Amino acid sequence: MGFYLELMETSNRAYRLGSCVINPLENKLNCNGTEQILQPKFVELLGCLVARYPEPITREELINHVWDGNFYVGEKALTNAIWHLRKAFKELDPEKTYIETLRKTGYRVLLKPEPIDTADKEKSVGISITTAQIRQLFVAMCVISLVVMYWLFSSPSEQIKSSFVLPLNSIESVTASPGREIYPSISNDQHYLVYSWRQLGKPNNLYLRDLHFPEHPAKQLTDSPYTEGRSVFSPDANTLYYYRMGSDVCEIVKLSLINATSVVLGECSNKYPTDLDISSDGKTLVYIADHTTQSGDYVTRI
Questions:
Q1: Cα separation of 230 and 194, whole Å?
Q2: Of 36-50, 75-89, 93-107, 213-227, where does mean pLDDT reach its minimum?
Q3: Computed from CA positions of residues 18, 23, 27, 30, in that sequence, does the dihedral angle turn out positive or negative?
Q4: Residue 39 has what DSSP assignment?
Q5: Over the Cα atoms of the chain, what is R_g?
Q6: Domains assigned to the chain
């Protein structure tokens, strides 16, 4: 799974690192039965290191992800956070080294992270079903069976009349951040949402949100002076394509969610409204671009 997707997983699920278990939702570090509460920034930083395992991650990337690119604050805060993480691991598990500093490169974790499998925990929990519960379950199954039989044997006109209509009050907000959130795009598996968010006084940037955990904050994907617009996922959700616009330029960009690298694929129209889309097999990307003919006339094509 790509770096950004792994990052989402490490911020939502407990995982094991050596003799320790990290619970990001509760900011807890538990090693051999002894527990410590960590600051949320420390847990988020550790999640970045774990998501990149076994490769190192640079200080610049960590500051971008954890401190939103604020290098004035992030430089000292990162050094302080690494020191506290090492101190916590050393106190709870003094026999192992968890975080390594690579000179002029960054940091990396030395132990392989493993997600916690909750299946065994669920199996170990005893299930007690009373006679009353069994009776209620039987009644519910009978009602469901009657509804299904009525639906199967009723006429089409009756089915239309009894069709389910989504009430307006069932619509829920996915985001509630200050500023302007536009151009939503959902991955094919409906797991992730990408959108362009313009905070007050700041340029548009792309953000990634895990729809399975809507209560968790979105992850920032871009940090540039450009205005990022509409985006589309590749079918496997490992790549994101989007356009970005500056004062005199419009570019189509390919962002890999595997290694967090981006490549400019071409230029789009900065004189007319632009857009892009991708084929269902992920092999063809279409977008609006400007090309100048020999006579000097502009020709817009898709």
A1: 9
A2: 213-227
A3: negative
A4: -
A5: 25
A6: 3-118 (1.10.10.10), 180-301 (2.130.10.10)
What's the token pair of residue 299? 């020709």
Q: CB under 8 Å to 167, separation ≥6 — which residues?
A: none
Q: Using the predicted structure, report yes or no on whether residue 111 has a pLDDT greater than 90.
A: yes
Instruction: Find all residues with CB under 8 Å of 37, minimum gap 6, and list them.
Output: 27, 28, 29
205: which 2 tokens?
């940037």
Kindly state the helix (H) or strand (E) to which residue 194 belongs, with its residue range: strand 192-198
A 10 A CB-CB count for 275 gives 15
146 — phi, psi (to 5°)?
-65, -40
Q: Are 263 and 253 in contact (CB under 8 A)?
A: yes
Separation between Cα atoms, residue 218 and residue 229, nearest integer Å = 17
Residue with tokens 């829920």: 172
Q: Do 66 and 48 contact (CB within 8 A), yes or no?
A: yes
Cβ-proximal residues to 144 (8 Å cutoff; 6+ apart), any chain = none
Predicted TM-score of the model (pTM): 0.46
The pLDDT of 238-264, averaged and rounded, is 89
Q: Yes or no: say if 223 and 244 are a contact pair by the CB < 8 Å rule.
A: no
Q: Find out whether 234 and 257 touch, Cβ atoms under 8 Å.
A: no
